[in-house]
Amino acid sequence: MNDIARIDKWLWAARIYKTRSIAADACKNGRVTIKGINVKPSHTIKAGEVVSVKKSPITYSFKVLKPIEQRVGAKLIPEVYENVTDAKQYELLEMSRISGFIDRARGTGRPTKKDRRQMDAFVDPALFGFEEEDEEEENF
Q: CA dihedral in degrees (110, 112, 114, 118; nearest 10)?
């Protein structure tokens, strides 16, 4: 058994990320830290280290119990790491779920059905009012 493992392989093997390439990209983009320092995908980890992973909108913290590079079944995950994420982070996650804008930044992409109805309710009454005034002004 190895005493060390690459961080990108460990993140994939511990099922924190779905693929190793996604784990490596997260490291490259500064979303994975150890002791507050961004790490490269090739960084080696040992048992006892705490790895912080930023998955918007919160930062998860995992204590490495076993540095592995081979993917294991979901039932064996408690032997691989311990979730030491702060309770305040989970409160933040719940608040963002309640607000409803977890996947899409406001103002980007297509409007949701609710957004469209609000826009229609705002625009339609105003249009009807202006049409009547415009016709009266043309007659003068």
A: -10
